[in-house]
Design goal:
mainly alpha; Farnesyl Diphosphate Synthase; about 300 residues; single chain; globular
Length: about 300
């Protein structure tokens, strides 16, 4: 199967599931439900659910879309949490981003109070749908994984350090921490949930967790680079936002060329972690996708 076809079929499956889980905009309170759907269906790449699917199908040793139906609560939960984090990141009191994916940010479209509630509602919806996993032991494990990824030890902790570090001189280790938590934690949760559902061996789960953290950090470094030299068409928002918000970035701390080399090394390390695993073509394509984003 061509990798492009793999991404399309899995994305189509996910889109239908997300549509079924989210209340229609016609349901009261109308604006809140419209706001939630607006951000969820704003053209996201669905990288976290696809990583989840790709990891699981690698572990079971074959690609079979019919076997993914029962996993849709976990895949959708990952996307809902990610979308919630973007809504909150864009708020005036955080990054004050007016655009996301080439469209007005949620708070620009619906106002700050509704945007805050939409993000909160997407997080609670994510936990709610995880309870629909048929195996309740696995459901609890997945809830534990995703809540840890969101917590002060994960995305929220990374965001807190990011906010507190604005307009301050920070070192590369602090910036690495921010990126690993804000971006890496949910990618790591995607592979951890796949490993739990498959009951993967511990050493395999650890290796795949490290793979996810590496590609998460690489992805964010590439974003840092693109924010400096990219375009609106590539970013879906105006470049230069990090510098306007006085945020530290890899290019600002170590220079553009060294930032590129750091991302390239992380991608090589990611590839080396999975190169000997069977049925690894989807995960290898993940590495290549991030590599292709490097300017």
């Amino acid at each position: 199967m061509l990798i492009q076809e793999y991404f399309k079929t899995r994305t189509d499956l996910l889109e239908k599931a997300l549509d079924s889980y989210l209340s229609p905009a016609t349901e009261y309170p109308h604006e809140l439900h419209e706001s939630m759907r607006y951000s969820v269906f704003s053209g996201g790449k669905r990288l976290r659910p696809i990583l989840f699917f790709g990891t699981y199908e690698m572990l079971i040793g074959r690609k079979n879309i019919n076997r993914l139906e029962r996993l849709l609560p976990a895949a959708c939960a990952l996307e809902l949490v990610h979308t919630a984090s973007l809504i909150h990141d864009d708020l005036p009191s955080v990054d004050n981003s007016h655009e996301r994916r080439g469209m007005p940010s949620n708070h620009i479209k619906f106002g700050t109070p509704t945007a805050i509630l939409a993000g909160d509602a997407l997080i609670t919806k994510a936990i709610e749908i995880l309870t629909e996993l048929k195996n309740k032991t696995i459901a609890i494990q997945c809830i534990r994984i995703i809540t840890k990824a969101m917590s002060t030890r994960g995305m929220i902790g990374g965001q807190a350090v990011d906010i507190l570090s604005a307009k301050k001189k920070i070192n590369i280790n602090t910036l690495r921490y921010i990126h690993l938590k804000k971006t890496g934690a949910l990618l790591q949760a995607a592979v951890e949930m796949a490993c739990v559902i498959h009951d993967a061996e511990e050493n395999v789960a650890i290796t795949l967790g490290n793979f996810a953290l590496n590609i998460g950090l690489a992805y964010q470094i590439v974003d840092d680079i693109l924010d400096e030299v990219g375009s609106f068409e590539v970013l879906g928002k105006e470049p230069g936002e990090d510098s306007r918000n006085n945020k530290a970035t890899y290019p600002a701390l170590i220079g553009l060329e060294k930032a590129k080399k750091t991302a390239e090394k992380l991608l090589r390390d990611s590839y080396n972690l999975i190169k000997n695993m069977k049925n690894n073509d989807v995960l290898i394509e993940y590495v290549n996708m991030i590599k292709d984003r490097l300017p």
